[in-house]
Amino acid sequence: MKKGLALLLVIVMSLSALVGCKNNAANDTAKENTKDGQNVTNAPGDQSAGDAEDTITVLLPPVSPTYQDYFDEWTKGFHDQYPNLTLKIEAASWEDVTQKLDVQVQAGSPPDIAFVGAGTIAKYIDTGLLLDISNIATSDMLNDFDQNILNYYRNGDGLYGMPAYAEVHGIGGNREMLEAAGVDWKKVQKEGWTFEEFREAIKAGVIKDGNTVKTYGFVFACSGVAAADYLNIFVKNAGMPDPFTKDLKYAYTSQNFLKLLEDMRTLIDDGSMPKELSSIDAGKRWNMFLTGQTMITGKGLSVFERSAKLNNDKIDAKDGSAVEGSIKADYIILPVPTFLGNKMQAAGAIDGYVMFRGKEEPTSEHLSNVAKAMYYLASGKIAAVTCNDLYISPVCETGRQAMANVEQPEGKNENNTEAAQLLASQISEARTDITPELGAAAQKISDEVMVPKFQALLANEITPKEMYDAVKAAAIEAFGKDGVVVD
């Protein structure tokens, strides 16, 4: 009997030890899955901790030429990585995406994730629906990005997005036409050019058949909201790299702004740009470049070199899908001219993914899932594929590592590569000191006054002074007389 009791005691003690080991292992696993207080991956089978089924909605434009072609593959890949999560992507065109998002935000039902430019986050912060992700995303996620680029999504103490890329917005020209007009484009790429030099160059680029213009010197897409691109890109080289000075005074009440408007109108009056510029959209301006109707086009992107090359290949192959009436064209990256003796200041386009909430308070588990989806889209292979498609380098370490396994484009113009790198080095620092309130007010002036007035200026319906006065009046109303530049 004593032997039986002893055996029973041994068995009980063994079972207790086994249970203890399992509990310790579970605790160790939970610790490993937590970094800086953020739950990274949940314990298996713990539905309440984040393994419950969840759907993340996303609104995305055609970020690169083939970007939207990958949506099915990326959706499947995300579900394979997180079997309990579903990525539901809605595609939109560049022309529609901003309007669609704004309508959804105003209705209080935005997608979980949207693709927006860093420069527009202030107006969404003002709605109360854009979320600060600094305490939602893990530190591992955020530390993957180049911090100077990530900072473009900071506003005040908050962080409101993950960057997909950093691109330079500029202009670009047809190599053969530039050389025929006497433009030393290699020198311009390295040293830049003044407005006066640019003005004479595009005059020389105009080709006429009698009184009919066959080729303009310069065309920029200005239909609808695209007019803001033209103005925002050029204003940086007129001594106003941001809407606010370092002492937070609204900059576009400066006399430099009036002079810039006068110069921009002059390019149309010279006959170097079409009189109907305000009606030319992005598609038409690119068609005009490929068909030889303009020597220089804008806005210009690195990827346009690839787009032109693909069309050239189709022409050589007598492929019917080449743009109708197009000619072979080598795309040359060019800087925007400088105004009034100011230095070159490239317009940086830092675009990426932001997180929204709806009218109802989202659960912490859902927010954690949305962060996973944001990082999935902004990093690693997707970042590499996207940036490679755009002829630029990723802005996160995992993207650069993945780039080694992505097939690189052939025949890339090294002069363009060097020019793009030089321009990228001239992108101004992120202005995290501009408060959400100031940013939203400036965006409102841009949307409601600056863009419509600029389109009217391009259409010759108002004068540069009338536009300047309208912007100045709106600025004083928004910021007060002491809150604007007076010179």
From TrEMBL:
Signal peptide range in chain numbering: 1-19
Keywords assigned by UniProt, alphabetized: Signal, Sugar transport, Transport
The keyword Magnesium appears for this protein: no
Highest taxon of the lineage: Bacteria
Gene3D superfamilies from the UniProt entry: Periplasmic binding protein-like II (3.40.190.10)
Biased composition range(s): Polar residues: 36-45
Organism: Anaerocolumna xylanovorans DSM 12503
Lineage, highest ranks first: Bacteria, Bacillati, Bacillota, Clostridia, Lachnospirales
Matching PROSITE patterns: PROKAR_LIPOPROTEIN
Stretches the record annotates as Disordered: 29-51
Pfam families cross-referenced by the UniProt entry: SBP_bac_1
Protein name: Multiple sugar transport system substrate-binding protein
